[in-house]
Design brief:
It is built from 8 helices and 4 strands; from the N terminus they run ααβαααβαβαβα. The chain is of the alpha+beta class and about 220 residues long. Helix 2 (about 25-35) crosses helix 6 (about 140-155) and helix 3 runs antiparallel to helix 7. The structure holds flavin mononucleotide.
Length: about 220
């Protein structure tokens, strides 16, 4: 697969086939991704590959926390507390496009809740990766992590895999650290559901939009 196809063809996959992904395949993906760049080659990534009973326990605990109204306690603030344009509009459109693909109407609150809860079932993916970073590392290393996670998503496409990065699963990092025996010294960045995409599902058949290059770039001479 060439790089342009790998990047442009990646989507967030929210429905998966009931087909396992072997640890050999995941190791091959990570073996590629580990060649991502990082400031002074610090390679700040720490990855947990989670499946089976462990994934189920995390899923159960997350659902219990959300349904029980436990206050989210993420290790970092992903989004601004007050939204402004153009981000607000893009975020709204993102939701509308997803609900449109799922055929969920504006007023159907219950279905929207169910769509949100699908996050905590990892959209039916057989495997979920969790990405951690040592708290001692600064902001720069967090964007190393972003590059690494994008590398994981792209490398996984070479193996016919799809993925969905999930910040939603980082709302309760203590649940995940406890289940995986990860020390408090590590911040949880996000999860990444991974599996073979179910291409027949409408939720995997729509594309999110992007601004044109002119909209975010100035050329200087
Ligand atoms: C770090 C990160 C966290 C995300 N968290 C979630 C999430 O919790 N749930 C979800 O359904 N999508 C999540 N997404 C997916 C975005 O909504 C998606 O990338 C965006 O709408 C663009 O669509 P695309 O990935 O299909 O190109 C996340 C994406 C990133 C990069």
């Amino acid at each position: 697969m060439n790089i342009e196809d790998a990047i442009k063809g990646r989507i967030s996959v929210r429905a998966y086939l009931d087909k396992d992904v072997t640890n050999e395949t995941i190791t091959a993906v990570l073996d590629t991704a580990r060649w991502s760049p990082s400031g002074t080659n610090t390679q700040p990534w720490k990855v947990a590959v989670v499946r089976g009973n462990s994934k189920q326990r995390i899923s159960d605990e997350l659902i219990k926390a959300v349904e029980g109204g436990t206050k989210a306690n993420p290790d970092y603030l992903y989004y601004p507390e007050e939204w402004i344009e153009p981000f607000k509009g893009r975020r709204f459109q993102c939701g509308m496009d997803l609900y449109g693909a799922l055929d969920i109407g504006r007023e159907d609150k219950q279905k929207r809740i169910e769509a949100g809860m699908a996050n905590f079932k990892f959209f039916g993916a057989p495997v979920t990766l969790f990405f951690f970073i040592d708290k001692i590392m600064g902001k720069g290393s967090w964007f190393d992590m972003g590059m690494f996670i994008q590398s994981v998503m792209l490398a996984s496409r070479e193996h016919g895999l799809g993925s969905c990065p999930q910040a939603s699963t980082s709302d309760y990092p203590d649940i995940i650290r406890k289940e995986l025996g990860v020390s408090d010294q590590y911040d949880l960045i996000c999860g990444l559901s991974l599996g073979y995409p179910d291409d027949d599902k409408a939720v995997n058949q729509y594309r999110t939009r992007r601004e044109e290059v002119e909209g975010f770039t100035d050329f200087f001479d």
